[in-house]
Each structure stands twice: as structure tokens, then as C-alpha cells.
Specification:
- With 313 residues, the protein is an alpha/beta fold.
- It is 34% helix and 18% strand.
- The strands form 2 sheets. A 7-stranded parallel beta sheet has the order 8-7-6-11-9-12-10, with helices on both faces. It has a 5-stranded mixed beta sheet with strand order 1-4-3-5-2.
- The longest helix is centred in the C-terminal third of the chain and has 17 residues, at 293-309.
Amino acid sequence: MARNSRGQGSKKPNDKSKRNAQTSGRGRNSRPERDSRSPRSKSQREGGRKYESSDRITRKPKTTAPKNIIEGRHAIEEALNWGMKLKVAYVANDAGLRDGKFARIVQRLQDNNVDVRVVDNAFLDSMSVRGSHQGIAAEIAPYEYADIEDILAQARDKDNALIVLLDHVTDDGNFGAIVRSAEIVGADGVVIPNARSAKVSAGSASTSVGAVFKMNIAQVANLAAVLDKCKEEGFWVFGASEHAEQVVWNANMRGKVVLVMGSEGDGISHRILEKCDVLTKLPQRGQIESLNVAQAATVMCFEWMRQSFGGLS
């Protein structure tokens, strides 16, 4: 009604408007008759998109942006190279496929049975964290955690084995960096609690450079019970603590070791400290606070490898 108020609500229309209404058969502000033909889509107006060629591409964007996403062409390619399982990919409807690299990424997503959805740029902008989605983003599928029994079975017949247990490390960056170090030295697994802890996510996957998809990561309800199981399998439990008297260079870390790293703020909890057979720390000459948990874990992982395997090329 508001759109027609100017023509219909005037009490004294001028003679010119009357004549126009009589000769044209409709008021000055009356709506034109609708075209009975269906309106063309944007893709039809622009000559058609190659997106339309695949039955697996849909146009059903979610009403809310997912949280666990990766964005940008390079990040999507890296995720596919790592073997990361992607649930849904969102592609901007104005990105086009004339760019051969972009077309190849979309094709790889389809080949990996990823649900590809065409959305507008506003939707991608709303989910973007870095503001550089480059016309594409993807939602990570739920990560499949390993079972602690599988990790122990893998290490059972080894003379030297390493399990890294994280006592409520909460930062994604620290978690990813620790998993990366553990994978590089050949650890058999990483154990995390299922509450108040960083998990496998887009952030930790990026920090670990895909190592989270190459490492057995177990998520458990009771860290203390896991340590008891490890001891039954012949593991020695080493706790990293800045209050320890023994430095890691003097500790005997050869053989089967569970390396316990505490949280960023509180360190190892009292209950877990009681389960440790040995407490050790990094040597230090300076006066500032010790390394953060990710840096300390890296040094200790490499010390275990040095002691267990000697000089490696």
C-alpha cells in the first residue's frame, strides 16, 4: 500500500494526472502487469555457470555459518592433500570456473564425495574468520579419534615407544604443534581428555600441518586410568614440570615412555603428578619464564628420540 500512496492518497490530483490515467488505462503509480514468464536465474543471465554441470552440486546453503571451517583455495588444497575429511564445501556463485586452478579444486572436492554448495559472497563473508576466503570454504567432518587400546597394541612389540599425554592443554595452536612434533619423532599416539581440552579442529589441523590426520589421537574420560594401563604395558611415565629437580638431559628416557605435558596455566594436575614415575624439566640459564608447553614438548620428544635411537641422519 505504501508504494501506491502517492497516487491514490492525493485528494486533489492535477488535470495532467487525470488525463494520463484516462489515456493509459492505469494510474501514474500503479504497478505494471507481471510478466507471466519465469524470471531467469543469475547463472542464465550471465551465460550459465559450469557449476550446473554436476548433479552433486546443490544450492542449499545453511542458514547459519558453521564454526569448524577452513577457507581459501590454498587451505582447501592442503586439506585434501592431508587427507582431511570434509563435510561440505561452499563455493561463491560469482567466483566462476574460468580459473583453471579453481576448477581443479572443485573437481577434487567432487571426486572426494564432498557436498559442494553454491552460495553468495555474503554467506562466505559471514563465515570467514580471516576475511580471505577467495570464494571457497569448507566444513570439516567430525574427526574419528583412535582408541587407547589401539595405540597400546601398536606399541606392544616395540622396544622404544612414545605416547604423549596432554593434561588439559586448551590452546589449538599448542595442541597442533605438539601433535606435529610427536609425529615427526615417530610417537605412537597422543592422548587428550574429552573435556576442557583442545581438540582436532581446523586450527589445530593447520598448526600441525596435517599431522593430526597421520597420528593416532585418543580422546579419553580418565587420564589417570590411561596411565595405569600404560604402566601395565611396560611404559614409564615422565612428567614435564618446571619444579622438577632433574633436567631432561640427565633422565633416562630410553624405551617405552609416556610423556605428560600439563596445561598452559596450571601445569600437570595433582592427580596426574602422583601417577608420574619421573619428573623432569628443561635446563635453563636465562631468567625469563620457561618455554611454553608446545616448545617444551618438542624438546622432550626429540630428547626421547635421541636417547632411544641414537644418531639419526
